[in-house]
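Figure S4 source data
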Amino acid sequence: MRTALRSSQAFTVRRSQIRLSSASGQTPRRIARQLGCADQTVRNVLRSYEREGLACLEQKSSRPKTPTPELDAGKREQLRAILHQSPRTTDRAHSLWALNTVAEVCCGKVLARAQVSDETIRSARRRLGVSWQRARD
C-alpha cells in the first residue's frame, strides 16, 4: 500500500492516501479536508476497497461495459431502405454508396444526432446483413 504512494498515477496515489488515512483512524470528513476532495469521494474509495481490495487502487476503464449502438433497430431499418436506393436519389453524383456518403445521408434524414462515423455505418450494415455498395431493387 505504501509503495502505491510513490506511483506516477495520481489516481493511485490519491486512493492510497485515502485508504492509509482511514486505516489510521481518521474520519472521511477529516480525510476529505486534508486531501481537498469531497466527503463522498472518500466514502466511495473506502467502499471500493471493501469490495475489491487492493485492486481498487488501479484506475478502471471508463468505457461502458455494454455500449449501445448509435443506430437502434428502427433506425437500422431506415438505413436498410436508404441502402436499397441509388445514391443518385439523394442528389449524389455516384451510383455506388461510400460509407461517408451513407453517413451524410443518415445525418440529413435525422437518423443520427450528428454525422456518424464510418464504423457506425459499417457495424449497422453488418447487423442488417446488407451489401452497401450497389443499390438493390
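Figure S5 source data
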Amino acid sequence: MFFSIDVHSDVAIYLQLVRQVKFAVAAGTIRPGQLLPSVRALSNQVALNPNTVARAFNQLAADGVVETLRGRGMVVRDSAVDICLAERESVLNDRIGVVLAEAWHAGLTKKQIRSFVDNHLRDLSDTEPAVLAVGAEPGDNGGVSSDNGGVDDD
C-alpha cells in the first residue's frame, strides 16, 4: 500500500500519516529497527509539504513509536508494536462502535446488523489487505514499496 491521504477528511493530513504508520507497525509490515523513509523522500512520494511529513514524524517520536538515530534517520522503536496494537484496537473499536450504534438506532435488528457485517467480511475476504512496507536496508533510499499480506480468517 502507499500512503493514502484524504484531503476531504476531518482528520489532519499529518495525523493520517501517523495513523497509517502505526497501523503498519501493528500489522507487522513495519518492524522494530526498521527505518522510515526520509522526510524528503516521503514528501515527494505523497506530494505533501515536507513540514507536514516532519510534523507526522515528530508526532510518532512523541508517541514513542520512532526515535532518531544520528546519521541514519527515524527508526521504529522496539516498544512500538505494543503501542501501535493498542492504538489500532482503540481506534477501530471506536469507529465500529459508532457504525453499530447508528445501525441499532436506525432500527436494524441484531440479525440485520450481523448480516451486513458478514456480507462485508465476505467481500473483504476476497481481497488481500494492502499494508505499508518500508525499506530498511542499510543504504536504502527510504523509499516506500507495496507489500500485500495474506488474508487471515480470524
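Helices lie at 13-27, 39-46, 50-62, 80-105, 110-125. The longest strand covers residues 130-134.
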